[in-house]
């Protein structure tokens, strides 16, 4: 390209839009984003690098680079503690709590959104008000309720998966109902009315018309319910025993009286995080759409 056709720096600067951001702003944004990315990724690097180190490297002074790389901690995590059993318990508890929470929330939110009934406002305010109290306030009451039910009826809720599932429902269900109410309100009622005119009953109209339109909101509620149950520690440490212990509590087994297997703790933490990360990546599109619609409403 000749000098006659090559655009000069002055010409390029004149061609820039008057609304374009100044160079100082662009560099400041790059620096801030780089620092934030480093702040977020640094703990991930420490976790990954520590899981690939021998125990002596993580037991002494911190080292940025391992003396030698090893994947042995990823094999040892299954033998030091019964991690597979804890993994199954967490999947059963979190999955069951999610299915029950979403199912009940769909019916409840649809009734509140589409019908008028006595006590509707009291119900919605009560559901929302439950989110104001910290979860630890319910620990002792639930413990006493489960023990008394077991003593009087023989139904063992304390120390069982079923009792832990009911416990997690007290957290996820109110939020799920409240969020789906807002999402169902954003769906035009004309769809329901058209389905009813075509001969659908209320339940059929719900599952064939409203639920397909509310998939992003339902996915967002499902992810919230699953993550709440998957990573909860306080209630799981009190309401479970050796047979029903979940991952969040089972990870404490890598700390013994003599030593803490930090490399296995990091390796197990990465393994435990895989279902959450994979699920989030697969459902990210629906999750963002559901949270955005709920916030706008």
TrEMBL record:
<dbReference type="Pfam" id="PF00528">
    <property type="entry name" value="BPD_transp_1"/>
</dbReference>
<dbReference type="InterPro" id="IPR035906">
    <property type="entry name" value="MetI-like_sf"/>
</dbReference>
<feature type="domain" description="ABC transmembrane type-1">
    <location>
        <begin position="87"/>
        <end position="283"/>
    </location>
</feature>
<comment type="similarity">
    <text>Belongs to the binding-protein-dependent transport system permease family.</text>
</comment>
<keyword id="KW-0472">Membrane</keyword>
<keyword id="KW-0812">Transmembrane</keyword>
<keyword id="KW-1003">Cell membrane</keyword>
<dbReference type="InterPro" id="IPR050901">
    <property type="entry name" value="BP-dep_ABC_trans_perm"/>
</dbReference>
<dbReference type="InterPro" id="IPR000515">
    <property type="entry name" value="MetI-like"/>
</dbReference>
<feature type="transmembrane region" description="Helical">
    <location>
        <begin position="165"/>
        <end position="184"/>
    </location>
</feature>
<keyword id="KW-0813">Transport</keyword>
<feature type="transmembrane region" description="Helical">
    <location>
        <begin position="86"/>
        <end position="110"/>
    </location>
</feature>
<feature type="transmembrane region" description="Helical">
    <location>
        <begin position="205"/>
        <end position="227"/>
    </location>
</feature>
<keyword id="KW-1133">Transmembrane helix</keyword>
<feature type="transmembrane region" description="Helical">
    <location>
        <begin position="261"/>
        <end position="283"/>
    </location>
</feature>
<protein>
    <submittedName>
        <fullName>Carbohydrate ABC transporter permease</fullName>
    </submittedName>
</protein>
<feature type="transmembrane region" description="Helical">
    <location>
        <begin position="122"/>
        <end position="145"/>
    </location>
</feature>
């Amino acid at each position: 390209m000749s000098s006659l056709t090559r655009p000069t720096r002055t010409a390029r600067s004149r061609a820039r839009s008057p609304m374009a951001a100044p160079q100082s702003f662009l560099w400041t944004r790059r620096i801030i984003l780089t620092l934030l990315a480093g702040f977020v990724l640094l703990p991930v690097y420490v976790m990954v690098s520590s899981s690939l180190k021998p125990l002596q490297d993580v037991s002494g002074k911190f080292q940025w680079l391992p003396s030698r790389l090893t994947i042995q901690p990823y094999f040892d995590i299954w033998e030091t503690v019964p991690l597979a059993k804890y993994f199954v318990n967490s999947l059963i508890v979190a999955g069951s709590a999610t299915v029950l929470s979403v199912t009940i929330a769909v019916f409840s939110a649809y009734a509140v959104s589409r019908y008028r009934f006595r006590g509707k406002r009291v119900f919605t305010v009560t559901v929302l008000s439950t989110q104001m109290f910290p979860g630890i306030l319910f620990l002792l009451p639930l413990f006493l309720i489960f023990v008394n039910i077991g003593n009087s009826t023989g139904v063992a809720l304390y120390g069982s998966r079923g009792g832990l599932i009911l416990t997690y429902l007290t957290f996820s269900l109110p939020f799920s109902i409240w969020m789906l109410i807002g999402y169902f309100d954003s769906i035009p009622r004309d769809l329901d009315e058209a389905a009813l005119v075509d001969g659908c009953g209320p339940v059929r109209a719900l599952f064939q018309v409203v639920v397909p339109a509310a998939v992003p909101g339902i996915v967002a509620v499902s992810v919230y319910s699953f993550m709440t149950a998957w990573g909860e520690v306080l209630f799981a440490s009190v309401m479970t025993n050796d047979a029903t212990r979940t991952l969040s509590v089972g990870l404490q087994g890598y700390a013994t009286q003599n030593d803490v297997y930090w490399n296995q703790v990091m390796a197990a933490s990465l393994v435990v995080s895989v279902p959450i990360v994979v699920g989030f990546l697969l459902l990210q599109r629906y999750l963002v759409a559901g949270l955005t619609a709920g916030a706008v409403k």
